[in-house]
Amino acid sequence: MVTALTVNIGAASRVRAELLLRWLAARPEQVFLLTETSAGAGTTYLLDQFRTAGYAVVKTPDVNGERGAALVSRIPLIQPHLTSFNGVSIPGRVAVAALDTQPRTWFLGVYVPSRDRSEGKTIRKQTFIASLLDALGGLPAEQHDHLVIGGDYNVIAADHDPLHPGFLPFEFGMLSTLESRGFLDAHGHCLPGVQAYSWIGRTGDGYRYDYFHVGPALATLVRSCTYLHETRETNLTDHAAVQLVVDVKAARLPCGNPTGADDLPLF
Questions:
Q1: What is the pTM of this model?
Q2: What digits encode the pLDDT tens for the residues 168-201?
Q3: 137: number of Cβ within 10 Å
Q4: Which residues lie below 8 Å from residue 51, measured CB to CB, with a gap of 6+?
């Protein structure tokens, strides 16, 4: 079995990055898709510790104040970059690689921009989503069908409960387009009809922003998809993490715990 976890780390400070490292190092997952990374000291520390421990890390630098995504894997990588995603409008917001599994799988971490009501940020988000969907549409069949997508999409479904006002058709369209192309909503598949939340607003309303989707060839191999709220409840971040279990076989796992993880303070 391959287990993966995605979590928004909220541009963690150096202090909070130490706590996140301690938590992640104790987790059983072999693949982490981290979103809302930053160019700050916290993200740098976290990823450097994983590299030192022998994990594979895929990260396009976050520049000009952008936030992004990173892929961290105990499973060796076969291909650390896919040129199909070179055209994504904000490259640092995707992290993708082929993993040494049977069958071969590709993992894609995604951090979709948030927006407010301004025209500029709306266009920025719409452009990113369109460029991401274009890149997915250009993948060879094997990569498309064996792809795992995870991260903070910053969108909700058209049947979300409650259906929060203010979301635009292109935002609902991201999820419906993935579905129309054969990508399976892993949580919806495992727990049909159950409304999950990964972020709670100031009014107490829940939003499902964080997801895992799998390509058509992996649909029958999904074993579980679970929202883990301990990350919110312990103030590691303001998002729940999401865990995915897929029945594929991983290659040998050569990595130990990240350097210094055993010496970090408990939260």
A1: 0.94
A2: 999 999 999 999 999 999 999 999 999 999 999 8
A3: 11
A4: 57
